[in-house]
Amino acid sequence: QVHLVESGGGLVQAGGSLRLSCAASGRTFSINAMGWFRQAPGKEREFVAAISWSGGSTYYADSVKGRFTISRDNAKNTVYLQMNSLKPEDTAVYYCAADVTYGHTIVVVPSSPWDYWGQGTQVTVSS
Fold this sequence. Notes:
- This protein is mainly β.
- It has strands at about 1-5, 10-15, 20-25, 35-40, 45-50, 60, 70-75, 80-85, 90-100, 115, 120-125.
- Strands 2, 4, 5, 6, 9, 10 and 11 form a seven-stranded mixed β-sheet that branches. Strands 1-3-8-7 form a four-stranded antiparallel β-sheet, with no helix packed on it.
């Protein structure tokens, strides 16, 4: 089992920045990759960014490229999402996810099933 806890969400004005954190605990040695997803009201959950746990390969949704950066601290078992130049359309509940079965290449096939999910953290961007 892997337990994920997100933090860092909040209210920010358009153009501002936030950094989300996702701390993993439990069988963290089994993690292949971690990702961030988001779900806005009335919309389906969508992929945001992912990172492989060993090599650090990253992959982003087109909508956030150049504005968001995913990173990880293996020693702390934590993944981060630095969000800059935020827009009102970035408003959503942000979830982190971990893969332990698919493999590190899930970062380029993020629609594949992820094994563990956090509870989510709300990000609200005001115009």
